[in-house]
DNA sequence: AGCACGCCGACT
DNA sequence: GTCGGCGTGCTC
């Protein structure tokens, strides 16, 4: 330990003691604050804000990794300081802006800032970093600024691409004044200058980003999955191909990237030059230089939810980052989520509607099966069958189904009760017509199955997965090519040639030129799911599928009537979202309120809930209520706290304090194996909407 | 998490 | 007397 070094300096010394305030890369809530370390002389100038460092913790010999957050000359800490051990890399990878974002996102969710930083900063790759540093030194000689900019005239400053489908200049104006807006995507497909077919939303977002680049600012474009990412990148490539965008201006954050690719793209974001950053939910944390736009495609897609602690969805991060950076914020989608609707009703987010209005041709149809013997094969109503047959003469037809596989459910052929696995009681299903039935949970083949109710030994197929629907459609349309796209084998695009494209919801490929008809077959089944948010979700899936149709091509929705059908026909998802939100308000369900799930020992949960009630007294006490506790895993219990947005900060700080308090007193492992890890006695998770399903 | 400090039981 | 049990608390 070298702590005595600081004490040797007399107060009158010339050299001021430089102190690095360091965030430790620790999972422990107790350590989620800044620690002060003296910067030794040989690291002065190297230990700057943003760099990764190694520092001693508690005693010499034990080192922890961390990031320098701040360098000051006056230590806030009165005890004797240890010294920074080592600067791991000179590159300041944690920018001031991203640190501030991580801190606030963590605070909002009662989580560790270091957990958020781990999402924001990819693991270091030494070779990649060395190569980048070398390139930086060569590319940017500090003296030749004028000639440099002449050589690399940003093409995007020459001719901004049109943002069509809205009032002239409407989107551009919103971007210029850095507005927060919900943008209704034009529900059709379009061809890029490079010849690729993409959803028009992709070209809209690409044009928005290029326009922002023309303002000298970066954009972050966040999409839920890689198929959306491919469309958006194709749209950007289209602008590259006509010289409206330089390919070096695009940076990627992609789940498919290798560690070195990811780090290379991350480093490129750190460069001074504004960029268009395209990626999945992690992209929301990219260290964009001079951020001018944050745009989310289809914000309600569950893939925007971060599965890692502290589980903050990209839209929540986007809202925090928008406030910190002052960038424009765009929620682009076909349907309107209740979440965005709430922000619109608060006038926190403005609406930009289509202008002129492009209306898909949606036809609701009753689910009554046809009397036509061909249509009966596929259980398709006559009108839908006729539509499909006619459309198939000229181009591809999309058939959206609810579930993948063949027959999702098997039943006993004598008593009709659902068949269960004899190993684990899971549901049995069939992979194809002749496949041996297997368990959907444990995968065991049901070899010598007998019904637990009536001793029957044969099955009946119940329900239709994508491949069974495909098989049936193949019989109904004998000469037609049938393409299946589902969770296991999903396609990004299909050609313009006639074909039946059977896809599970969310896995629909883009067709060149758009589908000549869209059939939404499993509406009833999709709606039958027992969930509070099922209507909102169905509307999103259906809207997205309908938006893949060619202009004026019919989209037939089978077996769905009432308000949902009316919403699709009039394409007024906003109105539906408003009535959904009103229902959630009366029920006190998200997004009308927020949630915090508190799990732990009965005592720790009870005391956390008590502190919560103590922290919001008086008139605010009505803004919070607690459901439970109910039994959870082990001998733990779970309570759900519902609270108004206005007391969110209080709830988060109170629960955070309870987590830290409980982190200290660990329970003794009574009679547990030696390697047993004691779980924390209190865990908190914010805005887990699945908990109410 | 680790690791030190601290205050009670059976041992050379 | 003291070696060591692990409950409690801190980490710049």
TrEMBL record:
- Secretion signal span: none
Report the EC code(s) recorded for this entry: 3.6.4.-
Name this polypeptide is given = Primosomal protein N' (Replication factor Y)
Composition bias, kind Polar residues: at what positions?
149-162
Q: Which domain of life is it from?
A: Bacteria
Which residue intervals define the domain Primosomal protein N' 3' DNA-binding in the entry? 29-122
Keyword Lyase part of the UniProt annotation: no
Q: Name one Pfam family in it.
A: PriA_3primeBD
Q: Where is this region: Disordered?
A: 139-166
> Could you give a GO molecular-function term held by this entry?
hydrolase activity
What are the protein's UniProt keywords? Answer: ATP-binding, DNA-binding, Hydrolase, Nucleotide-binding
Sorted alphabetically, which InterPro entries does this protein's record hold? P-loop_NTPase (IPR027417), PriA_3primeBD (IPR041222), PriA_3primeBD_sf (IPR042115)
**Species assigned in the record:** Subtercola frigoramans
**Gene3D superfamilies attached here?**
P-loop containing nucleotide triphosphate hydrolases, PriA, 3(prime) DNA-binding domain
